[in-house]
Amino acid sequence: MNYMSFALFDTGDIIVTQGTATGHAGEWDASKYNGLDVKCIWSANTQPVDGVQLETPRKYRGYDEAYGLLVLGTTSTQRTAAKNYCAAQNGEPYSVTSLKSNQSAWYCSKLGWASYNYTAANKDLDGNGGLYVWPIDLVNDNDTAIFVYSN
Prior knowledge:
By secondary structure, the protein is an alpha+beta fold. Helices cover 23% and strands 23% of the residues.
């Protein structure tokens, strides 16, 4: 369990957790945040439904460690566009084997990556440039900066 301070997050920031084989990632929607149990983080998962959905900050507390990431060189407008990209995928299917180039099926870190890659921000946040983008790739990318960490 970690004690991430969610009060520090703003729209478009990315949260990455570690503590499982691959970790987890989501993108913050500040307009929806009002406590640990309010769904305000866009991600793709298999629960409670299969696909792109909003998750609660409390879910992210269940991991051993967590990173808050700012995407460097982006404006507020670009971060909002990235968040809106995530929201536009709401309900689309989850697939952990979906290649980065496939925009019809999602996994957690791919959604955040795509939201910056396919919008005006034009940022490729994949730290190792592979066919898949894992949560830790978002942390290790040169276009992200850790603004808060907790374990």
